[in-house]
Amino acid sequence: MTPFPVLRLHSVGYSYPAAAATAAQALVPLDLEIHPGEILALTGPNGSGKSTLLALLAGLIRPTRGRIERIGRPGVALVAQSTPVPDSLPITAGEVAAMGRWKHAGLWRRLSPADRLIVAESLETVGLAALRARPVQELSGGQRQRAFVAQGLARQAPVLLLDEPMTALDTDSRAAVVRALTGAARAGTAVVLVTHDPADAAVADRIVRLPTPDRTPGLDAAPRTA
Ligand SMILES: Nc1ncnc2c1ncn2[C@@H]1O[C@H](COP(=O)(O)OP(=O)(O)OP(=O)(O)O)[C@@H](O)[C@H]1O
């Protein structure tokens, strides 16, 4: 773990607008540093704010309390818990993974040979190379999940966030994803994964457990340091 974090959270808390009237906190203020090359597991009971924290780290929502310091303005890839794909969208596993390179591919999203290689490697890493031409609608839940992990890997972002990436995976698929995450961390990526499974958390270098937020109206908890 390098001494220099890529993300630093200063008393970051969040309340959803819908909960503003009750002052319920989705995420109790948290101090946290996230370092390149580490795998950090976020655990905690249902409703403790794990997905909310990932959304904050991804920049999808802004803290309602505290601030997130983005050292070097790192790119962030988010693999959500379940990514809906409309049945009307005829998209293959390979195309799902290729979306991870769109940012690099210009207006017409034409991938360079180097981008295509990265996509192929990402699919290979999660054990989906043989299914790359299969429509997503024809994939099992676990195969679909791995296609989105491949997309996240293909982004090659300095920060990779994953919401329960191993849930519903069989032993071999889980091992493939663990290898992929370990490899990404070894290459210097800061990997943050949400999990309920102690076995999945055990692959992490560090575990941060979020407590159930105190939902007492008006209560403003003191920051915790993780
Ligand atoms: N869009 C939303 N609007 C209002 N409240 C929300 C919204 N999304 C989540 N919450 C609330 O915020 C709190 C934290 O939710 P979050 O999904 O981050 O928890 P979690 O730890 O990821 O839960 P789980 O383990 O069940 O996936 C919960 O009390 C939830 O009800």
CATH architecture of the largest domain: 3-Layer(aba) Sandwich
The backbone outline, from C-alpha atoms, is globular
- For the record, the CATH class of the largest domain is Alpha Beta
Structural class by sheet pairing and helices: alpha/beta
The major sheet is characterized as:
5 strands, parallel
Describe the structure.
With 226 residues, the chain is of the alpha/beta class. The chain has 2 domains: 1-75 and 158-170 and 185-212, P-loop containing nucleotide triphosphate hydrolases (Rossmann fold); 84-156, no CATH class. Helix content is 28%, strand content 21%. It is built from 6 helices and 9 strands; from the N terminus they run E-E-E-H-E-E-H-H-H-E-H-E-H-E-E. The strands form 2 sheets. Strands 5-6-7-3-8 form a 5-stranded parallel sheet, sandwiched between helices. Strand 6 (159-163), helix 5 (171-186) and strand 7 form a beta-alpha-beta unit. The chain is globular and about 50 Å long. The two termini are 16 Å apart. Mean pLDDT is 89; it is low at 216-222. Residues 16, 18-19, 26, 44, 46-52 line the site of adenosine-5'-triphosphate.
Brief write-up:
The protein is of the alpha/beta class and 226 residues long.
Outline the fold blueprint.
Layout: E1 7-14, E2 27-34, E3 39-43, H1 50-58, E4 65-70, E5 76-79, H2 93-98, H3 113-125, H4 141-155, E6 159-163, H5 171-186, E7 190-194, H6 198-201, E8 206-209, E9 224-225
Parallel strand pairs: 2-9, 3-7, 3-8, 5-6, 6-7
Antiparallel strand pairs: 1-2, 1-4
The structure holds adenosine-5'-triphosphate.
